[in-house]
Design goal:
- The chain is of the alpha/beta class.
- It has a single domain, classed as Collagenase (Catalytic Domain) (3-Layer(aba) Sandwich).
- The protein contains 7 helices and 13 strands.
- The protein has a 9-stranded mixed sheet with strand order 1-2-3-4-10-11-9-7-8. It has a two-stranded antiparallel ribbon with strand order 5-6. A two-stranded antiparallel sheet has the order 12-13.
- A hairpin with a 5-residue loop joins β1 and β2.
Amino acid sequence: MKKHLLYLPLCLALIMFSCKKEADKPKNPPGAEGKSELVTLKSGVVVEKKGNKYVWGGDMTLSSTQLKALDEKGTLIPESTTKPGPDRSIHPVYNIPMKAGANGTAVPRALSIYPTPYNMWAMVRFVYNANLPWSMRMAISQALHDMEAVSNVRFYNATGQPTVDPVYGFEYPYIDFVYVGGSDVSESYVGRIGGRQEISLADFAMWQPGVITHEVCHAIGMLHEQQRPDRDNFVTVNWSNLTSDGQAQFQKRTTNYLYMGTYDFNSVMGYSSFTSSTSIVHDINQPMYTRLDGSDINQGWQMSNNDRAWANYLYIPYIARSDVYAELADVVYKSDNTIMTPQERLDFQAYLNNGNPNPPPGGRIPNDF
């Protein structure tokens, strides 16, 4: 996500940055990729090459598999005719295919790369990178708790834990939250790609509400609202004010997509009309795009009802356990954002566990963040 013009009280920034001394920031934060260039793929999709990495839509980092698919097919994943839904075959904490071992522990069912370049998570496994300033770490924690409060998405803090399976030697899928200092963009991969995947957060993520949530939503599989195929029925793009980089960020997604409801002007995944990034617009005083009536769009700073409905349809709120019992959080949302009754929750938990509604004792593991 690029840095946008959001008019917030100055005191918010002062509070956030006064919590920790400047010395807490790393001397040489990572993320300096050098000169960037736009590359038009064989499919016609335009991506940005930054050093040895490729970025799509301004802030979506592409894995090599995703780049290949986008180049050849114009989509991140192959077309699918199956009905989308949560993947119940992977262990929530480790996000690997599993079965119950002889002692009730989780063991891999297969030792291979994931068969598609795009997948959802069970619980989103993550670590806090050692280079994060204290204030950024607190901002991430708040954003993750806020997402859990309104959706079925759940996070597992694996900071300090092994990133590689000690028995089989393969890397667990996990997000590494990394600080990139004064960059004008924060970035994330889209969906679960396998192994380590970085969410890079610039300084402005601490004082622009919604930036961290936006990047995490990319990681759970969401795309930009302004790239919807029906976008032009709701907004007017100011193409003349967009640079080539900016125009690339408004390419429509026309294949293999899933969205719910009409265009969502409140989505945390939609850009505001104005940006302070001169790499995107020629004139920062002119909008990138507006509603059809010419009025401005302001990006949501938290998950909207439609954002929540998407997540609640595709995610299950697991509790972290060392065994394979699928225990649910006390609050389980339906896809219409209403909450399951206690009996509905218990019935669903039984359904997930071969008819057993009662989790075995002693299986929960600490999960503080």
